[in-house]
Specification:
mainly alpha; two-stranded antiparallel sheet; Retrotrans_gag_dom; Retrotransposon gag domain-containing protein
Length: about 180
């Protein structure tokens, strides 16, 4: 598909059809599914055994363990947290542990602005979104409040923050004419 000149949405559709064909062929030829009366649980188990190896699950659990917000928005982090937590349900079965794990993965500058009175996942998520929105912490570049980022030209730039109390005004230096 890399060399194909198809638009991205058509590539996705083509690959989806290929996967559907592979799954359909497997389903028709799977001896354990011959006949009728099979439960959804039986199908899921056989499907996972065929298309989802134990190594795949271990990798996804490890990704969940290592998950940090990093340069993701809070919403993107929450989506990834939800997706990966399905593979590590035993790690987040307890609601307090789930909330704590989510809070720990947030970036430091968002985490410190969430009061400890928020204890549930839903409360922490909502407050993190609020902090991100109010403080304008949308990207990794903007999250580095006190460190300068370097542009492609090599000049240091400071992020512009929405809250005036944190804006840093550098004194203007005027060039002197040669004498």
């Amino acid at each position: 598909m890399r060399a194909s000149r198809l638009a991205d949405d058509l590539k996705v559709e083509a690959v989806g059809l290929q996967l559907l064909d592979i799954a359909r062929t497997w389903f028709r030829n799977e001896p354990a599914l011959a006949g009728e009366g099979h439960t959804w649980a039986e199908f899921k188990l056989l499907f996972k055994e065929k298309f989802f190896s134990p190594t795949d699950k271990i990798d996804l659990v490890r990704q969940f363990q290592d998950l940090q917000q990093g340069s993701l928005s809070v919403e993107e982090y929450a989506v990834e947290f939800g997706r990966l937590s399905r593979y590590a349900e035993y790690m987040v079965r307890d609601p307090e542990i789930r909330a704590s794990r989510f809070r720990e993965g947030l970036t430091w500058d968002i985490k410190i602005l969430i009061p400890s009175i928020y204890e549930t996942y839903t409360q922490i998520y909502a407050e993190a979104r609020k902090v991100e929105r109010e403080w304008g912490l949308k990207s990794k570049r903007e999250r580095h409040l006190f460190s300068g980022a370097t542009s492609s030209a090599g000049a240091a730039k400071r992020p512009q923050l929405k809250h005036r109390s944190f804006q840093h005004h550098q004194p203007q230096v005027q060039a002197r004419a040669p004498v």
